Amino acid sequence: MLNHQANLDGVFRALADPTRRSMVERLSRAPAGVTELAAPLAMSLAAVMQHLQVLEHSGLSRTENRGRVRTCRIESAALNLAERWIADRRALWERRLDRLGEILAEAPAPAPAPSPGRKKKS
Amino acid sequence: MLNHQANLDGVFRALADPTRRSMVERLSRAPAGVTELAAPLAMSLAAVMQHLQVLEHSGLSRTENRGRVRTCRIESAALNLAERWIADRRALWERRLDRLGEILAEAPAPAPAPSPGRKKKS
């Protein structure tokens, strides 16, 4: 449980930065080398590596070294964890809205105002 | 677009803390007063107020003041924004996996090894 919490902390913190989100977006399309990841970003390779490290520590990405080639991949499990956490909270408030709807539906309808032309049956 | 990015930054940053997540969880069940929100948390009311401020700035919660009563509510739109961002990235990599599956399915099946008892039709 503590681990799960720690992971959520890291995943959400990693996603709180637009550069890292753009890297996650890129890696969701296909694995990429570090220079490929860095190409569209207006920052030094060192800065890109730092962002990449945050993504790796959070579990959002994984880097494989084959000789001198580093390939970064997305780790879907970490994104799934975050998505599930949000979806579970959404389920809570949707259930609450459903309950409110039921309460309103079960409430007795307000009595119609007596119309002047209507007569009581005797 | 810049605003959308800024919102995502704030929402993900707000969710990167276990105390704030527990407050979002509580508010997803029902609106609550500040003291109600603070009750299960082992921290000062001032610290709770700071967390609440982060949630409000990110758009995850809203506080209404009626006289001396403050009621906090969840703002589902902010959570929806974060959920949609993750779901859109998931859609990207699922599409990629589907494409890989198609490529594998379309690849010519390996030729069966000639069986010793089979004869060519003449």
Can you give a write-up of this model?
The structure is a homodimer. Chain A is mainly α. The first copy, chain A, is about 60% helix and about 10% strand. The first copy, chain A, is built from 5 helices and 3 strands. Chain A has helices at about 1-15, 20-30, 35-40, 45-60, 75-105; strands at about 30-35, 60-65, 70-75. In chain A, strand 2 (about 60-65) and strand 3 (about 70-75) form a beta hairpin. In chain A, helix 1 runs antiparallel to helix 4, helix 1 crosses helix 5 (about 75-105) and helix 2 crosses helix 4. The radius of gyration of chain A is 27 Å and the shape is elongated. The mean pLDDT of chain A is about 85.
Overall radius of gyration of chain A: 27 Å
**Biggest pleated sheet of chain A:** 3 strands, antiparallel
Oligomer kind: homodimer
| Helix amount of chain A | 55-70%
Which range does the strand content of chain A fall in? 5-15%
Average the pLDDT over all residues of chain A and give the rounded result: 87
User: Would you tell me the structural class of the helices and strands of chain A?
Assistant: mainly alpha
The shape of chain A, in one word, is elongated
Question: What are the secondary-structure elements of chain A, in order, as H or E?
Answer: HHEHHEEH
Specify which chain pair forms the largest interface.
A-B, 30 and 30 residues
Distance between the termini of chain A: 71 Å
Query: Please, how many helices of chain A?
Result: 5
- Strand ordering within the main sheet of chain A: 1-3-2
Low-confidence stretches of chain A: none
Total number of beta strands of chain A: 3
